[in-house]
Specification:
- This protein has helices spanning 38-51, 63-73, 88-96, 112-125, 140-146, 151-167, 182-195, 212-226, 241-254, 277-287, 306-309, 341-350; strands at 12-14, 17-19, 26-30, 55-59, 80-83, 101-103, 129-134, 173-178, 201-202, 232-233, 262-266, 295-300, 315-319, 323-328, 331-337.
- With 351 residues, the chain is α/β, with parallel strands linked by helices.
- The strands form three sheets. It has an eight-stranded parallel sheet. A five-stranded mixed sheet has the order 11-12-13-14-15, covered by helices on one side.
- A hairpin with a 2-residue loop joins strand 1 and strand 2 (17-19).
- Helix 1 (38-51) packs across helix 2 (63-73) and helix 1 packs parallel to helix 9 (241-254).
């Protein structure tokens, strides 16, 4: 399978992070704390930063949450996006508090003057706007026209919002067209990509809890990314946001688009396996969890086929009955007692 080249999109900046163009695909997440709780929100964002999150989005449901944004921003290192629905005053206050981006649909704000006011401040402060179309909250007229949130309906919704901003000479735009239906979401992004060069934030909305949510996200995002579609991604899971970030990097890494942290490959085991491979793999994963360098490590259950099957791994171990082997780039470098396999692997990686 060949990965198609990234489609050409314009570059925008969310704070200091470039999105689109030839820039790396950006990994995003969203806080799951109450934004009004500054301490809890900052704690979660700092944890996300350590996980590799590069842009964070926060829900801004009311003015108290909007006014908390400045205190949060002072304590974090990554750009911050305010997620706002309907109320232009929250958008204005969020920009006053120093956010790096807005997620707001201009067609839902109300009177034209309200949109003009938001756009005017966004231009002044160089704050990009993400138009976020969601299949679950499609406009009534489009639901009536199409009957269901089909791809054409999602794209038409985005076009309406884009038109409003373009009429105001605002093109610092990012777009998302999310739904929980994987094929429909993929087709919506494909259709949009044929018509526009605005950068795309891709994701499968309400994907659900792991592992089902991971599978849906991996399929949907994997298809799009393999076709060169997508400039930022978020994996939407009913789980801790750090898990969203980890899965996002796994998806990007599996396609060779970005490398971060340890890639562990292990065999599924069979009748030849004579060690507790699942337990050993979990221990390896835990010990290497904090390594940020792109290293591939193999944990195999068969000393006969292990090194060959994991030839591309930087380091690996393969277990047998009572003993195992340590190998590097497919070459055996040492025979080791079974109970010493983990420590020997860690030692070689550390060197």
């Amino acid at each position: 399978m060949s990965i198609k080249p990234r489609r050409k999109t314009k570059t925008i900046y969310v704070g200091t992070v470039p999105v689109g163009g030839d820039n790396p695909i950006v990994v995003q997440s969203m806080t799951k704390t109450d934004t009004r709780n500054v301490t809890a929100t900052v704690k979660q964002i700092k944890s996300l930063e350590k996980s590799g999150c590069e842009i964070i989005r926060l829900a801004v449901p009311d003015m108290e949450a909007a006014k908390a944004l400045c205190r949060i921003k002072k304590s974090i290192s990554i750009p911050m996006i305010a997620d706002i629905h309907f109320d232009w005053r929250l958008a204005l206050e969020s920009m006053k508090q120093g956010v790096d981006g807005l997620r707001i649909n201009p067609g839902n704000i109300g009177a034209k003057w309200k949109t003009e006011e938001v756009v005017g401040v966004a231009k002044e402060k160089k704050v990009p706007i993400r138009i976020g179309v969601n299949a679950g909250s499609l406009e009534k007229d489009l639901r009536k026209k199409y009957g269901h949130p089909v791809p054409e309906a999602l794209v038409e919704s985005a076009e309406k919002h884009i038109g409003i901003l373009e009429e105001m000479d605002f093109t610092d735009i990012k777009v998302s067209l999310k739904g929980s239906d994987v094929p429909a979401t993929v087709d919506a992004y494909r259709l949009f990509s044929e018509k526009y060069d605005y950068p795309l934030h891709i994701g499968i909305s309400e994907a659900g809890p792991p592992p089902a949510g991971i599978i849906k996200s991996a399929i949907g995002l994997g298809i799009l990314l393999s076709e060169g579609i997508g400039d930022t991604i978020r994996v939407s899971l009913t789980a801790k946001p750090e898990e969203e970030v980890r899965v996002a990097y796994w998806i990007l890494s599996s396609l060779g688009l970005r490398k971060k942290g340890v890639d562990i490959i292990s065999c599924p085991t069979c009748g030849r396996c004579r060690i507790d491979l699942r337990g050993l793999t979990k221990k390896v994963e835990k010990r290497l969890g904090k390594i940020d360098k792109p290293i591939k490590v193999a944990v195999m259950g068969c000393v006969v086929n292990g090194p060959g099957e994991a030839r591309e791994a930087d380091f690996g171990i393969a277990g047998g009955k009572g003993r195992g082997i340590l190998f590097k780039k497919g070459k055996v470098i040492k025979s080791v007692r079974e109970d010493k396999l983990l420590e020997e692997l860690m030692r070689v990686i550390g060197e």
